[in-house]
Amino acid sequence: MAETFDLIVLGGGSGGLATAFRAARHGARVALLEPGALGGTCVNVGCVPKKALWFAGQLAQEQQLAVDYGFASAPGALDWEHFRQLRQHYIDGIRHRYAMGLEESGIQVYPETGRFVSANTIATSCGEELRAPQIVIATGGRPRRLDIPGFDLGMVSDDIFALRTLPKRIAVIGAGYIAIEFAGLLNALGSEVTLHVRHRMLTSFDAELVDALEQHMCDAGIRITNQVKVTGLHRDGENLMIDDDVNGPCGPYDAVLWAIGREPNSDRLDLDAAGVNVDEDGHIVTDAWQATNVEGIFAVGDVTERPELTPVAVAAGRRLADRLFGGKPDSRLDYDNIPSVVFAEPPLAIVGLTEAQAREFHGDRVHVHRAKFTPMKWAVAGRKHPTLMKVVTEGDDERVVGIHVLGTGADEMLQGFAVALKMGLRKRDLEDTIAIHPSSAEELVLIN
Ligand SMILES: Cc1cc2nc3c(=O)[nH]c(=O)nc-3n(C[C@H](O)[C@H](O)[C@H](O)COP(=O)(O)OP(=O)(O)OC[C@H]3O[C@@H](n4cnc5c(N)ncnc54)[C@H](O)[C@@H]3O)c2cc1C
Ligand SMILES: NC(=O)c1ccc[n+]([C@@H]2O[C@H](COP(=O)([O-])OP(=O)(O)OC[C@H]3O[C@@H](n4cnc5c(N)ncnc54)[C@H](O)[C@@H]3O)[C@@H](O)[C@H]2O)c1
């Protein structure tokens, strides 16, 4: 006979864990299915190992800055294997804490995949049947490759974290978050990086700051080939080559990274058995309450058509659990004004509308305030390292609808300003706030 729960969660990544923990806290009897490592993409092959590598890249740069400041030692290369082990140890600690937390919360964990047998029944990969009136799909996504000749000669972001050495010459195909982040951090660590861009970089970010970032990347030694369509990959002896429609064969490279987006893990769930709808890309279609078209079945995180960000998956899962089991019938995620950072070098942060979006929505009621400077940390050593800030407002009372920062510290700077924007920040509130001096962030309250 099928074992019965209040809630079954498919997937133990950011969204699934958040949903399961919150539901269990409200007293629900929860089953969680996760065939891989607890923590999913973010912890194992996403945000966490990526950010660790980004920190390493920052330290590499600061070694040179330290020499410029007058420190004696010459910059050295990263011991990649030593660092890989440190990083893995840190990740193992997170996984361990999740495993302990699940046990303490009384959540029944199945280290297996699940698929639908009916709208309230899941079959595990071991053949067991589980039943619940509420099921949450949080199965995330996986990296996409192009179906072109030689595509499998290229690796995806998951593979980078398993590398035993830093690739000396790497080509990155794509121009979104992953492409820009890996291009920046690998370059900072000493790889020769070539970026193959089909159209434009980071199209959802403010174009003026993206242009400044692109210039910075070029100045830092990253080769960027724009407006090219990759048509194939091939080997030339030991080397990898990329074929594109403009330049023919490009290379040689030691490694090629596909960074052209991700696809949802919805195709192996037997969704038809439950009647759950997906869109043309395979994303599970949900309403504002994370509900699918089938009663009692919900979806959160990357498997849906929502922004693919860990805090989005977590917030959606928690609010859903609060609604289903916590007596909060109005609890749902507001998807407006989600802040986000590309951990580029330097980082690029956004909350709210870009200037172009603001002009589209608000026409000539838009005002734009800019600041451009070199942060003191770099200026002291006589180095150029531009920071660009932009505050976009609308209307006579200048309601702030967008804040954009490119520069050192942007990743830590924007969170607090995102709170203010969400609360209805006006330009005069910035002016009424006393600056913290000397800092880069002060320029956001002093901006003209
Ligand atoms: C390289 C990289 C860097 C990133 N950096 C950032 C960042 O800096 N900041 C940020 O906010 N976001 C970042 N992201 C995005 C972030 O990782 C995802 O948005 C987040 O992990 C999505 O969580 P999720 O729970 O929807 O899916 P996942 O974390 O992918 O979890 C889904 C889980 O479901 C499991 N699963 C799959 N099929 C089944 C099944 N049939 N049954 C049971 N379980 C199943 C999988 O094994 C997986 O563990 C990054 C992503 C990548 C790839
Ligand atoms: N810092 C962060 O928060 C962070 C970091 C990494 C990833 N992520 C999340 O993970 C998601 C996936 O990252 P991603 O960078 O793979 O996807 P993305 O959607 O950010 O970017 C995909 C890029 O690939 C390009 N592309 C698509 N098809 C192509 C083709 N045929 N040839 C060449 N280029 C092509 C697109 O133009 C785009 O520039 C992101 O959307 C983001 O939500 C977030």
From TrEMBL:
Keyword terms, alphabetized: Disulfide bond, FAD, Flavoprotein, Oxidoreductase, Redox-active center
Coiled-coil region(s): none
GO molecular function annotation: glutathione-disulfide reductase (NADPH) activity
Organism superkingdom: Bacteria
Entries under InterPro entries matching the protein: FAD/NAD-bd_sf, FAD/NAD-binding_dom, FAD/NAD-linked_Rdtase_dimer_sf, GSHR/TRXR-like, Pyr_nuc-diS_OxRdtase, Pyr_nucl-diS_OxRdtase_dimer, Pyr_OxRdtase_I_AS
Similarity comment: family membership: Belongs to the class-I pyridine nucleotide-disulfide oxidoreductase family.
Cofactor(s) required for function per UniProt: FAD
Protein name: Glutathione-disulfide reductase
Limits of the FAD/NAD(P)-binding domain: 5-317
Ranges of residues in domain Pyridine nucleotide-disulphide oxidoreductase dimerisation: 338-445
Pfam families listed in its UniProt record: Pyr_redox_2, Pyr_redox_dim
EC annotation from Swiss-Prot or TrEMBL: 1.8.1.7
